Amino acid sequence: MVFGPVATQRYGPDMTLREALDGRGDIYRTLLREATAALLNAYYNAPGVAASPHVAAAADTALAR
């Protein structure tokens, strides 16, 4: 899992980015969906987008709350 131990604990180690993009229902799945979209934007290196390690760390921190 790209987003660290908290996401792995909640959703298991085998969740794909595609599955994360389908996240709906609870607030954490929605957060994971948005974090996945941000991560994909970071990999694309779009101007003004945070670097991928920062996105992953921020998502893990947010999921832990």
UniProtKB/TrEMBL annotation:
<dbReference type="InterPro" id="IPR039923">
    <property type="entry name" value="Protodermal_1"/>
</dbReference>
<protein>
    <submittedName>
        <fullName>Uncharacterized protein</fullName>
    </submittedName>
</protein>
